[in-house]
Each structure stands twice: as C-alpha cells, then as structure tokens.
Specification:
Length: 188
C-alpha cells in the first residue's frame, strides 16, 4: 500500500488502512484483524488482514497452548525466507491450494501485491496471471523472471522458475513421478 497523503500518526494510518480494506472488500473494518508493517519513512508498506472470526477461532483452538503471537500470510512467510536472494525486478508468486498471491518486486521493494482465488493453481494459470498483472499494474514488466513457491500443478516452462524445490533432472511432473517410482524400493 502507498503511504496515504497527510497521515501524521499511527492512529491516522490505522484508520486509512481500515477504510481501504472496507472499500476493497465491502465489509466493515470491524470484521478484520488488520496488521500494519510500516517503517517510519517508507513510501510503501505491507498491510495484512485476516477475518476476525477466523482469528478468534484460531486463538481459541490454540489458546490452550498459550496466546497466538503471530500469523503470517503465505507470501510474507515465503518472502521472509527468500527476499535477499531474489533478483530485481521479478515477479514472486506464493501459491496455496486455493489461492495465488503475486508480488512485483524491484530495487525499491514491493511495487504490486495481488491476492487471487485460484482452484488448484497450475503453471499455465500463473503465467496468465502474471501477464495480466503486468499489463494492469505497469510497474514490473511481463519479461521479468517469475519465481514460484508453493503448491503448483504442471510443468514449469519459459520464464517460470520454482524457488522452493530442488532442481533435479528436467523438473517435469512425469520425471518426478518416475524418479519416485525408481527409488521406492530404497525408501521401503
């Protein structure tokens, strides 16, 4: 998120973020648990939210073991592990079984973040998403490398590269399944 004009305090920043979530998701800000990672003089910062009902349910479930200290979205966790090793500019994609989060990164940091619903994301659908976001955002070019972490179906071709898997063989899905089959006797 870009820093809003005229914000003079943390309270005003929280109100601006709440208004942005309310406008973007058409739900009252009270329905969200919003966390802001804002450095004092940064032009851009991360704002993450989780539905308050989900946060309260998770707090109750794990409450027997102590308070919930933090919850991090998949993109934030993956960027935390790999941010220093990523080239700039690039597209970084964190995929889960039902969601794709895409971040456009350049020398100044994160320029674009989008969270999109995707039923079992595939390499082909990620390539299409990146091409569309490159046109919409205009911040990072479509020719920048696309680095993917998470659960993605299909073979990686072209500019797509996995950053969370070893680079064995051809990295094709058929090679991987045949390799597992070949080693199955050793693992038994």
């Amino acid at each position: 998120m870009d820093r809003p004009e005229g914000v003079r305090s943390a309270t005003e920043l929280e109100l601006a973020c709440e208004a942005r979530f309310q406008a973007g998701f058409d739900r009252p800000a009270a329905d969200w648990r919003i966390a802001i990672d804002a450095r004092l003089f940064a032009r851009h910062f991360f704002v993450c939210a989780i539905p308050r009902r989900l946060f309260d349910a998770l707090s109750r479930i794990f409450g027997a073991h102590g308070p919930v200290v933090s919850m991090r979205p998949c993109l934030i966790a993956e960027l935390g592990r790999r941010a220093r090793r990523l080239p700039a500019p690039c597209w970084f994609v964190a995929a889960t079984r039902d969601c794709v989060t895409i971040a456009g990164l350049d020398d100044d940091g994160c320029r674009v973040v989008r969270v999109l619903s995707a039923e079992q994301p595939s390499a082909g659908s990620i390539a299409d998403i990146v091409a569309r976001e490159a046109l919409l955002a205009g911040e990072i070019g479509a020719d920048a490398p696309v680095l993917v972490a998470g659960t993605v179906a299909g073979d990686f071709t072209g500019a797509l590269q996995r950053v969370d898997a070893p680079t064995w063989g051809t990295q094709s899905s058929s090679w991987t399944s045949n390799y597992r089959l070949a080693l199955s006797e050793q693992w038994a």
